[in-house]
Amino acid sequence: MHAKGQEKNWPTIALARLPVVKAGMEESADDFIARAAPQRDRTARPYYSTSANGQVVAECHRNPAFEQAMIEADEIHADGMSLVLFTRWFCKQHLTERVATTDLVHAVAKRAENTGTRFYFLGATQQVNDAAVAKMKELYPDLVFAGYRNGYFTADQEDDIIQEILNSGTDILWVGFGIPLEQQFVSRNLDKLKGVAVIKTCGGLFDFLAGRNKRAPQWMQDMGLEWLHRMLQEPRRLGKRYLLTNPMAIYALLMHRYFPKKRVNAAAKLPRAKNRTNTKTYMTQSK
Fold this sequence. Notes:
The chain is α/β, with parallel strands linked by helices. It has helices spanning about 25-35, 55-60, 65-70, 80-90, 100-115, 125-140, 160-170, 180-190, 205-210, 220, 225-235, 235-260, 265-270, and strands at about 10-15, 20, 45-50, 75-80, 120-125, 145-150, 170-175, 200.
C-alpha cells in the first residue's frame, strides 16, 4: 500500500485501518518544501497531511465518520511513539521514527527560511496564536508568515476565512483545532483551498509554541509516555480521555493486526459515536 502524492509515494503500514506513512522527520520536511515550490500547479488540490496517535486510533474505532475523514488524507504521520513501538513489537514492517508535528514544524521552518515558503497559522485563541507566531519569528527570523488568525468562528464565517487564506498566498496552512474538528474542516474545504500547496493538521501545536503546554522529557517521549506527562499536567481534562482511549486503541490495533476478518463484528460490540454533523462553532485547540 502506498500513500498518494505528487512528490513522494510513501510506503505505508496499516495500523488499525489507517495507512500510516513510513516517512521520517527530515524527508517529510523536504517533501513539504518541494510541494510548495513556486512552479507548482496552483489549480491542484492541496496535499493534505494529518497525524495519528492512540487517541486518533480509538476515535476512528468508535466513529466511522471520523475514520473516513482520516483516510481522505494524502498522508498520515505517526505522531505518537506508541504507534512506532507497536510496529516494532507486532508488525513485520517497522515505522522508522515518530513524526511529531511539534517537531516537524521546526524542521519545515528551517527550510522555509531559505526558500521563502510561506506559513499560515489557523487555530487556538488569538492570544495563543499571536504568541505562537511570535515564537516562530524569534526562532526563524527569515520565515515568512502569509497570515494567522484564531480558531473561533461560526459556520457562516467559514467561507470568508477560506477566502482570506487564499488571498494571503500562503504555501503551507497549519490547522490547529484538535480532533475531530480540524479533519472535518479540511474535509469540507479541501476543494476550496486550491492554490495552497500543503495543509497540515496540527492539534495543540500552537499551545506548545506559545509555551502554554510543555513537552515531556525526552526519555518519556522515547518510551511512548508523553501522554502520561500531559495527563499529569492536566489530570482533570485529560485523565478520563486517556483512561478511556488508551485501552480502546490497543484493542483496535491488536484486533486489526491479528483478526482482520473479525474486526467488523468485534468492533460492532463496542460503543460507537453517532454519525452527525458537527455543530460547534468553536474550534478546539488540543489533541
